[in-house]
Amino acid sequence: MKNITKIIAIATLIFMTSCGEDKKETVDNRPTVNVKVSTPSSENGNFITASGKIEAVQNANISTRLMGYVNNIPVNVGDKVSKGQLLISINSADITAQKGQVDAAIIEATAALKNAEKDYNRYKILFADSSASQKELDDMTANYDMAKARLEAANQQKKQVNAQLSYSNITAPFSGIVTGKYINKGDMANPGMPLLSIETPGNFQVIAMVPESQITQISEGIKVNIQVKSINQIVTGKVTEVSSSTKNTGGQYLVKIELDKTNVNLLSGMFTSVHFPVEKTNETAPVLIATSAIVTRGELNGVYVVSQSNTALLRWLRLGRVYGDQIEVLSGLSSNEQYILTAESKLVNGAKLNIQ
User: Fold this and answer.
1) Residue 148 belongs to what H/E stretch?
2) May I ask the CATH architecture of the domain 64-91+168-199?
3) Which of 100, 148, 236, 286 is the most buried (most CB within 10 A)?
4) What b/e sequence results for 300-330 when a residue is b if at least 16 CB atoms lie within 10 Å of its CB, and e otherwise?
5) Confidence (pLDDT) at 81
6) CATH fourth-level superfamily of 93-165
7) Which whole number is the average pLDDT over 88-106?
8) Nearest one of 239, 186, 216, 200 to 73, comparing CA atoms
9) What is the pTM (predicted TM-score) of this model?
């Protein structure tokens, strides 16, 4: 019985040893991956970077001062419109009724003025012939002046009504494209509520927000590079306006950059990173790596680094701002570590590397 137990133990040990050797042989037989490596750089450290958003230089949100139901909206998003073209028609039956009343009041005031003028002229002649007293002439003069005032008041009321009517038929303030439609036929339009938005395409600017620690280094006229994040393209522009107050901007200063003409397909609302060529002061240069080397797993971002045993090791990172084709590493990678820039085949943890 003891011999049988000893034989089983020896067999088990031999089996486990052979499995370990097979496993080791499998690991050792993994193919070597040819890779190119790089080290983090900080060559963009002499730039101040701020986030921004593209918008058309000429744009407008269309609203009205009149409350009423929308009768008609003859345009849709994407339509080209000309200056003066009808955009929205709002029900104005009550304003139209007021206009009729004002027109009637003008007719009445005009007739009263003519009659008062005749009386005034007649009493002037009678007074010159000593056939009327001074008081009678003064009364006629006062009556004539009041008639003129009533007619003027009626005319001013007509101007007011006409101004209100102009808000019932809203026209395009300039030629452009409809970019937003926020109300439909039959809806109630309220004063100040955005109804449509239009813009003139082709001429864009970037609105960037710069913190107070950096705003003093930015001035009008400087040329800047702008990275459009969604399409990963670089365009150029010039600073045209630098705000001197943070009121209503959340403690940051507004900077406007007019973009140069470009063939890049830009759209309003695209987010950007603006690189101001201004030397940083009292700041640590950022650790930058190529964005093409980033590995994404769900919401995690990382990069493969070269381990001490010359194998691939996935390192998770906390990333910051984008600088063109590079991205800032806030933590997870030091400036003297090598990371894998490109690989000829798929990388996995522990893969043997052949650095080219």
Assistant:
1) helix 134-166
2) Beta Barrel (2.40)
3) 286
4) ebbbbbbeeeebbbbeebebebbbbebbbbe
5) 92
6) Helix hairpin bin (1.10.287.470)
7) 86
8) 186
9) 0.54
Is the distance from CB of 212 to CB of 191 less than 8 angstroms?
Answer: no
Region 85-114: mean pLDDT is 87
Most confident of 1-15, 57-71, 243-257: 57-71
The full DSSP string for 232-290 is: TEEEEEEEEEE-S--TTTTT-EEEEEEEPP-SS---TT-EEEEEE----SS-PPPEEEE
Is 128 strand, coil or helix?
A: helix
Instruction: Supply the CATH classification number for the domain 48-57+203-276.
Output: 2.40.30.170
Structure tokens at 49: 């970077």
Q: Are 259 and 352 in contact (CB under 8 A)?
A: no
**Looking at the predicted structure, is the pLDDT value of residue 44 above 60?**
no
164 Cβ contact partners less than 8 Å away, ≥ 6 residues apart: 65, 66, 92, 95, 98
DSSP readout, 92-106? -HHHHHHHHHHHHHH
Looking from the CA of 210 toward its CB, the CA atoms found within 13 Å total 29
User: In this model, does residue 170 exceed pLDDT 60?
Assistant: yes
**How many alpha carbons lie under 13 Å from residue 70 in its C-beta half-sphere?**
23
List C-alpha distances in Å: 162 to 37, 159, 326.
73, 5, 59
Q: Which of 255, 321, 252 is nearest to 288 (CA)?
A: 321
Each residue's pLDDT tens digit, 284-322: 567 888 888 899 988 899 999 988 888 888 989 988 877
The two tokens of residue 207 are 């609105």
> Could you tell me the end-to-end alpha-carbon distance of the chain, in angstroms, rounded to an integer?
61
Question: According to the model, what pLDDT value does residue 127 have?
Answer: 83
pLDDT band at 138 (very low <50, low <70, confident <90, very high): confident
Nearest to 312 by CA among 355, 350, 356: 350
* Domain assignments of the chain as residue spans, ordered by start: 30-45+285-355, 48-57+203-276, 64-91+168-199, 93-165
pLDDT of residue 149: 93
Separation of CA 100 from chain center? 45
The answer to whether 333 touches 327, Cβ cutoff 8 Å, is no
